[in-house]
Write a structure and sequence with these properties.
With 122 residues, the protein is mostly helical. The protein has four helices and no strands. The chain has one domain. The protein is 62% helix and 0% strand.
């Protein structure tokens, strides 16, 4: 196994753990406003230069959580015309499921791409 990746392209254990943390720290947003963005942002800023895998997964987690925050805000505004009341729980469930899927994939060393995500940070 090489220092960066093993022969099948999967990240080494420390990188996988940090990639996992990038995704799971989004759950901080359930306790603190914008924690879903700040949690992954901290890991990404600290470790992005040390690991291409953490850089990639940190950007993915950030882009997804920024996209979800924008979608949630728009859905909140649309609650005044009822459709937002339907969209908010759908967005919440989508966020929860996709974050868990991404965390599992990152823990397995796979480079995960969230669906329906605006790639603001490249």
């Amino acid at each position: 196994m090489s220092e960066e990746n093993n022969s099948n392209g999967l990240a080494k254990q420390e990188e996988r753990s940090l990639g996992l943390a990038c995704h799971l720290l989004a759950f901080v947003g359930m306790v603190f406003p914008f924690g879903n963005i700040l949690g992954p942002l901290v890991i990404w800023l600290v470790k992005k230069d040390d690991s291409a895998f953490v850089d990639d997964q940190g950007k993915e987690a950030l882009n997804f959580n920024i996209t979800i925050s924008i979608a949630g805000f728009v859905a909140f505004l649309l609650t005044f015309v009822v459709i937002g009341a339907i969209l908010l729980p759908i967005i919440g469930i989508f966020w929860l499921v996709m974050t868990i899927v991404a965390a599992v994939k990152a823990n397995g060393g796979e480079h995960y791409r969230y669906p329906l995500t605006i790639r603001l940070i490249k």
